[in-house]
């Protein structure tokens, strides 16, 4: 008796591995079938090492071949266990009510990461999103100044019998900052795990309520502090801020690599080019590329990550930061338009990312519907 390989495959299409919906052939569990006269060898790959599932698969294969093809066939089943390829996952505990956590990072210090974070936050709030900023920049927390809430302190509120920190609020943005808990001028020399612990408290022991976006203003650099934060919080995606200058771009590249490395695996939503050019008020048509032209845009292309947009170097942006009223709040200005473009792109990238990856606790927003400002253009 010479067995026909096709008939064997047909028979195997009628059974499945325990716990899987598709039949063994369709699911890819059957890797190979070989026949030699009345002998047949079936190679199976299973995703689980569970003994009873292996045994059951072996018995089922033998039985179906004996029943449907040839009852005296000499069947040998080789089983290999291979864990399925790990999909990118969002790590950390679920945070009830917080739909997306977006980390804003820079690599190099002083490139305007906090300024961009503050302005994206107020723009999101203007678009109708519920927004919070968690200022995790332990070396120079600036959110309290940029939102003019330096003198305030988070109050304690009672939520379900537990005492929680109530974020300070201004311009429709809820804020918690390391700066609320350290004295001005106090150099905070924390190691990664300590900072991560403090941040964990500011997330899990705070009464944030419902948030569509929590923006996490990270310290500059790519040190162990970042690793600790990334690994302990369910970060939806990261935005990298850079100036077009080579030294900043080199660090921005390291920032992207940090998020993309296997142990962290946080999707990069895109790169923002800050201080893209200087335009003096008296010569609005003139653009001076002080730090180089389109450096961050080119970097985004090279690294195949989205480019979210550019912000010019403008005196009023610095001034508004210093007086505690983010520039994007001022309507009908080029800065407002620039931040709207970047924010819209960031939201779109968040939507794309949430559609592409399996839903996890941190991922909820899958459409921009209901938010007219986001779709405007
Ligand atoms: N596009 C811009 N035009 C003018 N000034 C800017 C611009 N972006 C940032 N600044 C100013 O540059 C300074 C540094 O900005 P910012 O504090 O946002 O940087 P950072 O990257 O967060 O710094 P750090 O490394 O300390 O966290 C601030 O005084 C800010 O007002």
UniProtKB/TrEMBL annotation:
GO molecular function: 4 iron, 4 sulfur cluster binding; ATP binding; ATP hydrolysis activity; ATP-dependent FeS chaperone activity; metal ion binding
CDD domains, sorted: Mrp_NBP35
UniProt xrefs under Gene3D superfamilies: P-loop containing nucleotide triphosphate hydrolases
Keyword Iron assigned: yes
Domain MIP18 family-like: 6-76
Similarity section: In the C-terminal section; belongs to the Mrp/NBP35 ATP-binding proteins family. In the N-terminal section; belongs to the MIP18 family.
HAMAP family: Mrp_NBP35
Name the record gives this protein: Iron-sulfur cluster carrier protein
Organism: Christiangramia sabulilitoris
Taxonomic lineage: Bacteria, Pseudomonadati, Bacteroidota, Flavobacteriia, Flavobacteriales
């Amino acid at each position: 008796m010479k067995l026909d390989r096709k008939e064997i495959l047909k028979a195997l299409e009628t059974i499945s591995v325990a716990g899987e919906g598709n039949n063994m052939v369709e699911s890819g569990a059957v890797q190979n079938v070989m026949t030699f006269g009345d002998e047949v060898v079936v190679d199976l790959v299973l995703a689980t090492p569970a003994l009873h599932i292996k045994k059951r698969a072996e018995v089922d294969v033998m039985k179906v071949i004996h029943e449907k093809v040839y009852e005296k066939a000499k069947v040998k089943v080789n089983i290999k266990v291979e864990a399925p390829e790990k999909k990118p996952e969002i790590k950390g505990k679920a945070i009830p009510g917080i739909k997306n956590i977006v980390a804003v990072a820079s690599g190099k210090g002083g490139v305007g990461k906090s300024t961009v974070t503050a302005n994206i936050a107020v723009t999101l709030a203007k678009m109708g999103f519920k927004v919070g900023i968690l200022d995790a920049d332990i070396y120079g927390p600036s959110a309290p100044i940029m939102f003019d809430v330096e003198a305030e302190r988070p109050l304690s509120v009672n939520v379900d019998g537990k005492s929680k920190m109530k974020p300070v609020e201004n311009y429709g943005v809820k804020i918690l900052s390391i700066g609320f808990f350290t004295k001005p001028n106090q150099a905070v020399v924390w190691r990664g795990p300590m900072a991560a612990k403090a941040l964990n408290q500011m997330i899990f022991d705070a009464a944030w309520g419902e948030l569509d976006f929590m923006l996490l203003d990270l310290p500059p650099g790519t040190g162990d502090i970042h690793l600790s934060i990334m690994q302990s919080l369910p970060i939806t995606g990261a935005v990298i801020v850079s100036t077009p200058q080579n030294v900043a771009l080199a660090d921005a590249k390291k920032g992207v690599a940090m998020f993309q490395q296997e142990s962290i695996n946080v999707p990069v939503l895109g790169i923002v080019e800050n201080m893209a050019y200087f335009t003096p008020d008296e010569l609005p048509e003139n653009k001076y590329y002080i730090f180089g032209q389109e450096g961050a845009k080119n970097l985004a292309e090279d690294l195949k990550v989205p480019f979210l947009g550019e912000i010019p170097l403008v005196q009023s942006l610095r001034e508004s930061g210093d007086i505690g009223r983010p520039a994007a709040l001022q309507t009908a200005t080029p800065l407002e338009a620039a931040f709207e473009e970047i924010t819209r792109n960031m939201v779109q990238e968040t939507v794309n990312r949430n559609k592409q990856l399996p839903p996890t606790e941190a991922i909820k927003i899958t459409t921009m519907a209901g938010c007219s400002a986001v779709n405007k253009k």
